[in-house]
Write a structure and sequence with these properties.
9 helices; seven-stranded parallel beta sheet; globular; single chain; 336 residues; two-stranded antiparallel sheet; alpha/beta; TIM Barrel
Length: 336
C-alpha cells in the first residue's frame, strides 16, 4: 500500500477482555516501524469506553482500558491513543464534564508521559459527546493537560453539520475549531467520506470521492496548515469492499501533492448504504512526510494554524505559503 502510518487496536474493539502481548511482539512492531520509516502511528481505543456513564463499574472498566492502551502505546512507540468519549445518556454535557475530566486525569497519571490521549469528534447522534468543537475544547480545558489532543474525523464532522464542501462554510468551521479547541491540538485526521448527507447525525463511512464530502471537500481541508501537518488515517470500506486500500491512499496522496488524481472507479448502484468495514490494521497517512519547496519535512507536532490559504489557481491543493493565525494557547499543566 505504501502507507506512511498505521492505526491499530490494542485489543478487540467490542469486548473488555484483553490479551497480553508478548514483549517480543511489541519490540518487533516498534523496530519494524522504525526501520520502515512508518509513523507517527496511532492506536484506537475500544468502542465500549464511556467516560460519561452513570454506571461506576462501566466507568472503572473504561479508565482501565484506556490506561492499558496508553501503556501499550508507549511500548509500541505509538504517538497517541484515539478514543470516543461516550454518551451522557440524557444527563447533559455540563453535568458529566467533571467526571470525564477526572477520568482522563487518572488515565494520564497512569500512562507514559510521551503518549497523547486523543479525543475524537462525534457524528452527533443521540446524546453522544464531542460532535461540537466547544465540547472538545471544554474537556481539554477541564483536564488542564496538553497531552490531551484531538483526532478530527471528517465523516463525523460532516454528519454533525460542519460543511467541508463549501470553502466559506469551512472557513467558519475552522475559525470555530481554532477558537474552541486550538489548532495546535489537532494531531490526527480520520479521512473518511460520508455515505449520508450533511447534518445527518449518522456515522457511515464511505470511500474517498464516493460520498457526500467528495474529493473537493478533502482538497478544501488540505488548504489549512493544521490539516496538512496532521497524520491522516483511513477507515473506509475500500473500493472493492476489503477495507482501506491502496487506491484510497493514492487519492489522498495526489490531493496532498497537487498531482493528477488516479482514476476512481464508478460507485456501484445501490452501494451507498452498505455498512463500512472498520479498519483494524494498516491505514494511510497523508502528511508527515510531506516536503515543501525547501524540502523541509512537516511533522505532526508542528503548531499549525486554521487560517485558510488563498484559493489555488489550479484544482490542485497548494503546498506552501499559508498564513498562520493565532492558535489558542493552552497551559500544559503536567499531571502525569
Amino acid at each position: 500500500m505504501k502507507a506512511e502510518a498505521v492505526q491499530v487496536f490494542g485489543a478487540a474493539p467490542q469486548q473488555w477482555r484483553r490479551k497480553t502481548h508478548p514483549q517480543t511482539d511489541i519490540d518487533a512492531f516498534r523496530e519494524g516501524m522504525t526501520q520502515a520509516g512508518i509513523g507517527p502511528n496511532f492506536m484506537h481505543g475500544i468502542y465500549l469506553v464511556n467516560l460519561a456513564t452513570a454506571d461506576s463499574e462501566h466507568l472503572t472498566k473504561g479508565i482501565a482500558s484506556l490506561s492499558a492502551d496508553m501503556q501499550l502505546a508507549g511500548g509500541l512507540g505509538v504517538a497517541g491513543v484515539i478514543f470516543h468519549v461516550g454518551s451522557h445518556k440524557g444527563a447533559g454535557f455540563d453535568a458529566v464534564l467533571p467526571q470525564i475530566a477526572q477520568a482522563i486525569r487518572e488515565v494520564l497519571a497512569e500512562s507514559p508521559p510521551n503518549v497523547w490521549l486523543c479525543l475524537e469528534n462525534n457524528a452527533g447522534g443521540g446524546d453522544s459527546i464531542g460532535s461540537r468543537f466547544a465540547e472538545l475544547g471544554a474537556i481539554r480545558e477541564a483536564v488542564g493537560n496538553d497531552r490531551v489532543r484531538v483526532c478530527f474525523d471528517t465523516c463525523h464532522a460532516h454528519a454533525a453539520g460542519y460543511d467541508l464542501t463549501d470553502a466559506a462554510a469551512l472557513d467558519e468551521a475552522m475559525a470555530e475549531f481554532d477558537r474552541e479547541v486550538g489548532s495546535d491540538a489537532l494531531v490526527a485526521v480520520h479521512a473518511n467520506d460520508s455515505k449520508t448527507p450533511l447534518g445527518s447525525g449518522r456515522d457511515r463511512h464511505e470511500n474517498v470521492g464516493w460520498g457526500t464530502i467528495g474529493v473537493g471537500g478533502f482538497r478544501n481541508l488540505l488548504a489549512f496548515d493544521a490539516f496538512r501537518s496532521a497524520t491522516w488515517l483511513l477507515e473506509v470500506p475500500g473500493y472493492e469492499g476489503g477495507g482501506p486500500d491502496a487506491l484510497n491512499l493514492r487519492v489522498l496522496k495526489a490531493l496532498r501533492e497537487g498531482k493528477r488524481l488516479p482514476r476512481i472507479p464508478k460507485k456501484p448502484e445501490g452501494g451507498g448504504e452498505k455498512t463500512a468495514k472498520k479498519a483494524t490494521g494498516t491505514v494511510g497517512k497523508t502528511s508527515a512526510k510531506k516536503r515543501g519547496k525547501t524540502g523541509t519535512k512537516v511533522g505532526t507536532k508542528t503548531k499549525a494554524a486554521t487560517k485558510r490559504k488563498a484559493a489555488p489557481k489550479s484544482n490542485a491543493a497548494t503546498k506552501t505559503g499559508a498564513r498562520k493565525s493565532s492558535a489558542k494557547k493552552r497551559a500544559a499543566k503536567t499531571e502525569a
